[in-house]
Design brief:
This protein is of the alpha+beta class.
Length: 1905
């Protein structure tokens, strides 16, 4: 990109781009191009563009560096001019804050969504829907095309969805303002913030102001419905009556809204209906939206203009009904959502039947199922529900009222009737009728006056259509019993109401238009609107009298009034007509009631019902009499008393009218007994106020307030109200009835005083403030009388006193309008302030709370009067242990603190100072006393709020007040005040803080609340630290300083402050708002530490753990602050003061708070101590913290850097300190490696074992037994997971070695986590011994428990037999030991020897513990190489198996891949000397051939270039591998530390092969001798056939051809080859008697079917025997053996030749022991006998025999106090190296006293005995002479066998048991096992080199080895 191609973007506007796809710019572009990484959804600020399609800019979320990116990776959006907006300051002014919050929040939700997906949580679907909705909302909000009200609605919807998603993901709770934006909490009190968090589970936006008055009643609902797509197949117009129907009550709940459907347009006009003032739905109710469709036209339906001429008839005919269930929509509004939408709801239209009524059709539609309505026509309905009054909906959503949609109201009164809501509606419902022979009836309804005139515009079918003179009902075709269920609305003026009635006329309608025009009404009925007592007609159903009309007399002319009003003379209802009277029963056929042309028809029925919804018309006669009190003054007493008995709803409905009447009576009463009437009026007024103040009627309080403010005009009422109040107070002592009424009066005191004050103000306004002084004096007198009443000690006044104190503060706002605030304050101090009786504490607290919440307390001059009194009162109550009282105290304190923190209150330091002096210590004590009780949270918030509002001056004032309190009893006895109280106070402060950090008081999601709490505590601790440094350094208070350090560390390490664990957005927000408070506290800790001076030594090492916890916080600056303190602690321990710290000169900083001077430190004489205490504490803490997840690699590097730098600058302790730092660094690295492995889910158990052993070795090396034992049991648990029971026993043995067989007390460091109840060494060691026996048994390793000198059984036997003399336990041990012996020799115990495998891990893809290293693994029982390889491949998925045995090159070792090399190796067994020369069973011998192995061999065939490469030229390469430790052991594998590679000549291979075959035959014979009666080995026939009659390999003939021919002898004339030829001949001769014995066994057991095969083998054997005898000689038969002699001659085995060479053979003849060079090895080089693992090095002597039995010191090295299980090690003995079945070279031949002994089959001589030398077991190296088969041949010269020492061993079970070769003894010097003998027992095998971090290890496969 050329520089000239870049140009700046548009100058006058900023360009913001939204990333539309990911772009990894840093990796795709070269570094010089400065590519910018972009993530989908990020925003970038664009500053330059390139013509090649590139932009340059920086990321805004989060703000980053400047870079380039392609143009098509972003979508550009210009913003408003930059102005003062800085770089990266967020969205522009046009972007809404909610839209930006959606963007940020969705990015944060991504992590939670990923977690839900991984967990398979079903909530992921909900989160997905919320995300899609928010994306669409954000797009709409940013479109810029929304009206303000719709924008506000969508914004609230978005905020609600954001909160829902955050709660679903359990994200932080966010406090929002009324606009939905996150609220700023900086200026708010902590108490106020706490309350906001507690209510944050409510809807995210606060309730509108208009709804706040509905605190105890459900707010009204407003439902807006839009009907669309109504298609009718009719040429007539129609009207649609829309209303809501309650299916539970079976009645309509709203009036009808009438919509017009025009046939010409085919659509509704408008279609929108508003239902106002809906009530909360009762439980179980179902509400339906019902649309009744009524056609207006001819009697018969004409579809689509059918017919030639349009009809002139207008008849209302039923068409159909549409029904939609809206219960869910309305209940969503009830649930608290301010706005709920329901879009695209389908309402099916059900057509009416031929004569079916609309009501019946509606019921049928409601009962119909969904599948029955799928083919019907539908109406598309959309609805919105608002939880607001209709007035507020109209103001906030004016677009909904465009076109003036009809507003349908309830057919009843709403819950709240406001004064402005004047309603005078009467609803008449036509129910049903029954006629005689009259059908097609139409009812015409009109409102007429008493003269018969129809009132104009007085009736309508519903809202939405103009009122008319008449209403025509629906006509049902051919129906003489119609059921209309139609409701009409009457609008009659209040003046016309008394003289009006409703007239119903009935007319027959004909389908013949001409005939229909001549039809006249045939009947009439009427219903008066006023009852006989003058009230409105009751709400009920009426059975009206139906009067037939004589058409000849009836005139339709409106001017003929005489005929038309004659019906008014007749009764309107049937119940008023008595047909049983004498006038109608004197004679049959008497005339019925009649008047004019109207005659009563008794057999016809007409029913209607009425509903009066009026705020002016009453149905109560007493209320009517009261409203007309001037005309009915005689009944005024009864009417006033009747108000007290009226229903509350009826009284409150006419609240304004009744109040007007009451104050009129009070002002203009002229009754003979005015005082009595005034008292009745006062009682009625108190009753009405109490009704309003009831909890169930709280919604009427705004109505009453509005009345007092706008509609009250009783200027003269205050005189009589004050008089009545005074009378009630003064007469409260006379009767119980008066006291009861006084209680009710006090409950109404708030509104009584409102009336009094408002009346006085009206009077003063009209009379120029006349009588002000008198009025104020009356008010003061009244309040003083109340105060005197509250101070009375009479028991009967307690209820009155409590009521007064509780309710009288409510009058403060009104009193302040007419009196001075300070005067009022003093009055209320006398009224509420003094401490009253204990039962009144609760009421007194409520009164104090009310005063605090009143305007009086907001005035500074009033607080100076009130606050000291209230604080002293609260101080006394806080000492009580009553949760109810304490809860109310907390509420009062919270209100005071909220008020003092408010911006609109001019609070000075004096106000908070009073609280600090009086209440702070009490609040602290309450917090500590309450502990975890629920109320403690409230007081903790109060405590934090006080601390937050305190300034430095307040802290000074607090200390001064405590000092003054401490000095008060002594009267100032000294110059310096006693600091005891101050110390106690500081200690009390630390307690709740530490509890906050450890347990947490607030929910985890209240992040802002918790951060604010921590900010306050940080400031408090910083101020307290100044006090501690100034006052408590001299004299020194250790506990106070220690508590400060504890509190500071707990502060920094609490979970809420670990910012690195939060999301990026949250971490950035918290850092910007609160910074990293941990760093500030760490700096304070360092200042406090430096201030200690010579007192620092008091905190070493106790403070190490806490500061280490602090330093592990992953903040580099904090670590650099704390880590130097560790070096300071080291110096403190190293440089100990000569005298004690208390007597040290200077004693510290001496109150200056500064650091001790250097001169002071140098003047003190010092001695140089150790660093043990610091070392021990640090290592123990590191082990716990790092394993718990603390710290990282950067910490290790920083720790090493800082500590090494300081140690090198201190010459006195440099050496020791550097060594300590090195150990700590090594420990941390090992612990981090261990933690990473243990916490990784994809790491196998073997890697975890390896890291555990590394830590074991480290802790053993540094003698940390407690941690050593801890990790021993961790290793034990890992072995148990894999069922490695033998390794489990060895692991427990390491713990047992640390214990003594004494009753010494068991220190904590040596205890077992499995057996914590044991108290002595003996108890625990004994238990561990039994555990080892159990696991050896489970692992079938019985020999390890019984076959050792210091085995578990042997030590227990010695313990029980000679020490504790517990013969019962001794018997049990012997029985278990015998059982182990039985298991070893029992054929039923199948014990398959384990195979061993060499595994090499090549490549850098492997973990560091395995990378480029080779190991020997001990396979599981019956595990072959294929299964083992598959298991290794599964450990490391993706590794490549190498099929060759060649060492890999560097390209493989350095590659990033993983290469695995696995093959089988043969163990080189070491058998014990006690088996020498004895007939040992192969079941005993086989175990020792495959266990305790440290040397392994494997070989491969070398390529030959000759043609005959089978025998004569088959060279082998044999590799001998030495492992770091023997197997089995602590692990199932061992690192290969050394390789030796030798070449094996062909003849030697032949010798070993032949010897192996002889071993196989010997094993078959031995197995038969174990059980002669049993079956023979199935392999016997095949083995014998392969030797006697070889069909493939040719048998010994090939050996003779290859090695025994003259040609071979001539080519190999040297003595070495001649000796090998002689040995080969000898093995051929030795094979003959073995074959003979085996064939005899085979012949005795062979089945008849296999007899011919045996005969063939026998004949072949005889031929071979003759050939061998003739050519090479013979050997005596197997079953004619003579008696054994101790030094019997024997032949050589190939293994002995291979291991010891010719000189060993010569040594046997000469009786001398030779080294590899032919010399006798020195005594020091002779290795002692190797045991199978010593259990303990401490002899089991009784206490009386022991001179001194010193316990093991914990500080001593572990090596010097305990030998290991493998402390005595024998030299390794290689085997034959062949892969075959176990064999044996021990002779099991029976004794034959008379016959000669065969030198070939004689039993081998016994191995040397052991003897004790200086208490140590030594091997006596003596070799017994072996008689050769051909004594005439000379001994083999040494120089002929230089390479035989390294020949591969034979397989388990084959080869001789002798292993005392001098050559072998030298090899053992170079590769001594960790279990080898030494004076000092060796430590746990040192850590494998491949696991040592940072240490270069020579490659085990190096060709130079």
């Amino acid at each position: 990109m050329h520089i000239a191609a870049w140009r700046p973007c548009v100058v006058d506007e900023e360009l913001i781009g939204v990333v539309v796809y990911n772009f990894p710019g840093e990796s795709l572009l070269p570094p010089a191009a400065q590519g910018l990484n972009l993530v989908l959804g990020d925003r970038v600020r664009i500053i330059e563009e390139h013509e090649g399609g590139w932009y340059r800019g920086w990321a805004l979320d989060p703000e980053g560096r400047t870079g380039v990116f392609p143009k098509n990776a972003v979508r550009v959006r210009p913003l408003a001019p930059a102005g003062a907006r800085g770089r990266g300051k967020g969205p522009g002014q046009q972007e809404a804050h909610v839209a930006h919050e959606i963007f940020v929040t969705l990015k944060e939700w991504a992590q939670g969504a990923r977690r839900l997906f991984v967990q398979g949580d079903k909530r992921l679907g909900d989160l997905r829907r919320l995300t899609y909705d928010l994306v669409e909302l954000r797009k709409t909000l940013l479109s810029g095309t929304l009206p303000s009200d719709e924008y506000r609605r969508l914004q609230q919807d978005a905020v609600h969805k954001l909160s829902s998603g955050s709660r679903l993901l359990e994200l932080d709770t966010i406090i929002r303002g009324e606009d939905g934006a996150p609220a700023s909490l900086e200026a708010s009190s902590i108490v106020e913030i706490y309350r906001l968090f507690k209510t944050a589970h409510l809807p995210p936006t606060t309730a509108p102001a208009a709804l706040r008055k509905y605190t105890h009643a459900a707010p009204p609902l407003c439902c807006v419905v839009q009907l669309q797509n109504l298609a009718l197949k009719s040429s007539d117009d129609a009207e649609v009556l829309v209303s809501l129907y309650d299916d539970q009550k079976t009645e309509f709940v709203t009036e009808n809204a009438v919509l017009e459907w025009r046939a010409g347009r085919g659509a509704l006009e408008g279609g929108r209906v508003v239902f106002a003032d809906l009530k909360k739905l009762p439980e179980g109710s179902r509400v339906f939206l019902v649309a009744q469709i009524v056609r207006r036209g001819a009697m018969e339906l004409r579809e689509n203009g059918e017919g030639k001429k349009a009809s002139g008839q207008v008849i209302r005919r039923p068409w159909g009904v549409a029904v939609l269930d809206v219960t869910g929509l309305l209940r969503s509004g009830d649930a608290g959502q301010e706005e709920v939408k329901g879009d695209n709801l389908l309402a099916p239209i059900v057509a009416c039947g031929q004569s079916e009524s609309l009501a019946a059709t509606m019921r049928r539609a409601i009962a119909a199922k969904a599948n029955e309505q799928k083919d019907l026509a539908t109406v598309l309905v959309s609805g919105q529900v608002f939880r607001q009054p209709i007035k507020q909906v109209r103001e906030e959503h004016p677009y909904l009222f465009v076109g003036s949609p009809p507003v349908a109201r309830l057919l009843s009164h709403p819950d709240v009737v406001v004064p402005a809501d004047v309603r005078n509606d009467i609803y008449i419902s036509l129910e049903r009728a029954e006629f005689k022979a009259t059908r097609n009836v139409e009812v015409s309804v009109a409102v007429c006056d008493d003269a018969g005139a129809v009132l104009p515009a007085a009736i309508a079918a519903g809202v939405g259509v103009p009122s008319g003179d008449r209403h025509q009902s629906v006509v049902y075709y051919h129906e003489d019993k119609p059921r209309w269920s139609e409701t009409v609305k009457l609008s009659v003026g209040f003046q016309q109401f008394a003289s009006s009635h409703v007239r119903f006329t009935f007319k027959h309608r004909s389908s013949n238009e001409n005939k229909d025009k001549n039809e006249k009404p045939f009947a009439l009925a009427y219903l008066p609107l006023k009852s006989d007592d003058g009230t409105a007609l009751p709400d009920k159903s009426y059975r009206l009298a139906l009067y037939r009309i004589d058409g000849r007399k009836y005139s339709t002319d409106e001017k003929d009034k005489s005929a038309s009003v004659a019906y008014l003379e007749l009764p309107s209802e049937e119940q008023k007509i008595d047909l049983t009277s004498a006038a109608y029963t004197e004679k049959k056929g008497a005339a019925l009631p009649a008047a004019g042309c109207f005659t009563y028809s008794p057999r016809e029925v007409f029913l209607v019902s009425s509903q009066v919804c009026s705020t002016k018309l009453t149905q109560n006669v007493h209320l009517l009499g009261l409203l007309k009190w001037k005309t009915s003054s005689a009944t005024i007493h009864n009417n006033l008393k009747a108000i007290l008995e009226m229903p509350a709803t009826q009284v409150l409905r006419f609240l304004q009218d009744i109040l007007d009447v009451l104050f009129d009576i009070l002002s203009y009463n002229t009754a003979p007994d005015p005082d009595h009437v005034d008292a009745l009026v006062f009682r009625a007024l108190v009753h009405m106020i109490n009704l309003v103040c009831r909890e169930s009627q709280q919604q009427f309080r705004p109505v009453l307030d509005q009345y007092i403010k706008e509609n009250f005009f009783g200027a003269m009422a205050y005189h009589k109200l004050l008089h009545c109040l005074s009378v009630q107070i003064n007469h409260a002592t006379e009767r119980d009835e008066d006291r009861t009424f006084l209680i009710r009066t006090m409950k109404a005191a708030e509104y009584l005083f409102k009336f009094i004050v408002q009346s006085r103000l009206l009077y003063a306004q009209m009379n120029q403030n006349e009588g002000d002084d008198q009025f104020r004096a009356s008010m003061v007198s009244l309040l003083q009388a109340l105060a005197q009443l509250t101070q009375s000690r009479k028991a009967t006044f307690k209820t009155i006193q409590g009521t007064i104190i509780r309710y009288i503060p409510a009058v403060i706002p009104e009193i302040l309008r007419v009196m001075e605030p300070v005067v009022v304050s003093r009055l209320f101090v006398g009224l509420i302030g003094p401490t009253l009786h204990e039962p009144l504490y609760q009421q007194q607290l409520e009164g104090v709370l009310a005063v605090v919440q009143s305007p009086l307390f907001r005035l500074a001059e009033c607080r100076r009067v009130l606050l000291p009194v209230f604080c002293q009162f609260l101080h006394e109550l806080l000492a009580r242990d009553d949760d109810q009282i304490l809860g109310k105290c907390a509420e009062v304190l919270g209100e005071i603190l909220v008020l003092l923190a408010g911006k609109d209150v001019q609070s000075g330091p004096h106000d908070l100072g009073v609280m600090v002096e009086t209440l702070l210590r009490s609040v602290v004590r309450v917090v500590n006393r309450l502990g975890g009780r629920p109320i403690s949270e409230e007081f903790l918030v109060i405590l934090l709020s006080i601390f937050r509002q305190m300034s430095d001056a307040h802290y000074t004032q607090l200390i001064a007040s405590i000092d003054a309190l401490a000095a008060a009893p002594g009267g100032g006895a000294g110059d310096s005040p006693d600091s005891h109280l101050l110390e106690e106070f500081l200690q009390e402060i630390f307690l709740p803080f530490r509890s906050l950090f450890s347990k947490g008081m607030f929910p985890r999601l209240w992040t802002d609340m918790i951060m604010l709490q921590n900010a306050v505590i940080l400031e408090v601790l910083r101020n307290m630290s100044l006090t501690i440094r100034d006052r408590f350094l001299q004299p020194f208070k250790y506990q106070l300083w220690s508590n400060f350090f504890d509190c500071a560390v707990a502060f920094c390490t609490q979970e809420a402050l670990q910012l690195e664990t939060f999301s990026e957005h949250k971490r950035k927000r918290l850092q910007e708002q609160y910074e990293d408070m941990r760093l500030k506290m760490a700096l304070e800790v360092r200042v406090m530490w430096n201030s200690l001076g010579s007192k620092k030594i008091n905190f070493v090492p106790h403070l190490v753990t806490r500061l280490l916890d602090l330093s592990l916080i992953p903040v580099e600056e904090l670590r650099r602050t704390i880590l130097p303190l560790f070096f300071d602690m080291m110096q403190c321990e190293f440089r100990l003061p000569k005298q004690s710290a208390a007597d040290a000169p200077g004693g510290g900083a001496g109150g200056t708070g500064g650091t001790a001077s250097r001169k002071e430190l140098l003047e003190q004489r010092t001695i140089f101590g150790k660093l043990d205490a610091f070392h021990h504490e640090t290592m123990k803490a590191l082990d716990v913290y790092i394993e718990g997840g603390r710290g990282d690699g950067d910490y290790v590097a920083l720790f090493e850097e800082i500590m090494v730098e300081r140690c090198q600058n201190n010459w006195q302790m440099k050496e020791r300190a550097l060594r300590l730092v090195e150990q700590l660094v090594e420990q941390m690295r090992l612990l981090f490696e261990y933690r990473d492995v243990m916490t990784s889910v994809d790491v196998d158990v073997e890697s975890r074992m390896c890291c555990t052993v590394n830590l074991l070795e480290y802790y053993e090396r540094i003698c940390k037994r407690e941690m050593y034992i801890r990790y021993l049991y961790k290793l034990r648990d890992l072995h148990l997971q894999l069922a490695n029971y033998t390794e489990v026993a060895f692991t427990l043995e390491h713990h047992a070695r640390l214990l003594l067989w004494t009753d010494e007390h068991l220190v904590e460091q040596l205890r077992s986590p499995d057996f914590p109840h044991f108290e002595t060494h003996r108890e625990l060691k004994e238990q561990l011994a039994y555990e080892m026996i159990r696991f050896f048994d489970m692992g079938k390793a019985w020999e390890y428990a019984i076959n050792r000198d210091s085995g578990v059984f042997k030590e227990l036997l010695t313990l029980y037999e000679t020490d504790v003399f517990d013969y019962r336990k001794l018997s049990d041990v012997l029985q278990r030991m015998a059982a182990f012996y039985d298991k070893i020799i029992s054929p039923q115990q199948m014990r398959t020897p384990c195979e061993y495998f060499r595994v090499a891990y090549w490549g850098r893809g492997f973990p560091a513990a395995w990378r480029n290293k080779a190991f020997v693994y001990r396979g599981a029982e019956c595990e072959n190489i294929r299964d083992f390889t598959d298991k290794q491949m599964q450990r490391f998925p993706g590794c490549i198996s190498l099929k060759t045995m060649d060492p890999p090159g560097n390209e493989i070792k350095e590659s990033d891949k993983m290469y695995l090399q696995v093959w089988k190796v043969e163990p080189v067994a070491q058998l014990e000397e006690r088996f020498s020369g004895k007939p040992v069973s192969h079941r005993i011998r086989s175990f020792f051939l495959t266990n305790d192995i440290q040397t392994f061999t494997y070989h491969r065939r070398l390529h030959s270039h000759t043609k005959d490469a089978d025998f004569a030229n088959m060279w082998l390469e044999r590799t001998t591998a030495h492992t770091r430790c023997a197997l089995p052991g602590l692990l199932r594998w061992a690192l290969i530390t050394q390789h030796t590679v030798d070449r094996v000549p062909p003849i030697q291979t032949a010798i070993e092969t032949l010897q192996a075959k002889n071993d196989d035959i010997h094993r078959l014979i031995e197995k038969f001798q174990e059980n002669p009666a049993g079956e023979i080995d199935p392999q016997m026939g095949g083995i014998l056939g392969g030797v006697v009659d070889p069909a493939v390999n040719g048998g010994i003939a090939n050996y003779e051809k290859a090695f025994l021919s003259l040609e071979y002898r001539e080519k190999h004339p040297d003595a070495e080859e001649r000796e090998r030829i002689r040995v080969l001949q000898e093995l051929i001769v030795r094979q003959v008697p073995l074959l003979e014995a085996a064939l005899d066994i085979y012949g005795s057991k062979v089945k008849d079917s296999m007899r011919p095969h045996y005969e063939h083998l026998h004949s072949s054997f005889l031929k071979q025997k003759d050939h061998v005898t003739q050519c090479y000689g013979s050997a005596p038969p197997l079953f004619t053996l003579p008696k054994q002699r101790p030094a019997a001659a024997r032949s050589y085995s190939n293994v002995e030749l291979r291991k010891n060479g010719p000189k060993w053979y010569a040594g046997e003849h000469s009786g001398s022991t030779l080294s590899i060079n032919g010399d006798t090895p020195p005594a020091a080089a002779r290795q002692p006998k190797r045991s199978l693992g010593s259990f303990s090095s401490i002899s089991l002597r009784s206490s009386r025999d022991s001179q001194s039995l010193t316990p093991v010191e914990l500080s001593q090295p572990l090596q010097a106090t305990r030998p290991r299980r493998d402390s005595e090690r024998k030299a390794p003995r290689p085997g034959s190296g062949r892969v075959g079945r176990p064999g044996s070279e021990l002779s099991l031949a029976e004794e034959n006293e008379g016959g000669p002994q065969s030198p070939l089959l004689a039993a081998p001589p016994p191995l040397p005995d052991k003897k004790a030398e200086n208490g140590t077991l030594k091997r006596r190296k003596t070799l017994e002479a072996i008689v050769p088969l051909a004594p005439e041949k000379p001994p083999l010269p040494e120089e002929l066998f230089p390479g035989l020492l390294d020949l591969p061993p034979k397989s388990a079970g084959s080869g001789t048991l002798r292993r005392d070769s001098p050559a072998l003894s030298k090899r053992s010097d170079s590769s001594v096992s960790p279990r080898s003998a030494s004076a000092t027992p060796p430590p746990v095998p040192e850590k494998p080199g491949h696991l040592a971090p940072g240490k270069a290890i020579p490659h085990p496969e190096d060709s130079s080895v």
